[in-house]
Amino acid sequence: MRFHVQTMTCGNCVKHVTEAIMAIDPGAKIDADIPARTIDVATSASPEAVTQALAADGYEASAI
Ligand SMILES: [Cu+2]
């Protein structure tokens, strides 16, 4: 699944986003595109769970 993360602007953001998703699914695979501000996530978690985990870490994400 793919998400747009508006405030993911640098590698440090990617680290935070990755950690937030790994906290709900340690087996998740995350591929981030910083210029596009998108992430491709391979996870067994629901899109809603990913969105909530990112929101809790201060990153507003929307499934695209
Ligand atoms: Cu950043």
From TrEMBL:
Residues 1-62 form the HMA domain. This is Copper chaperone. It comes from Novosphingobium panipatense.
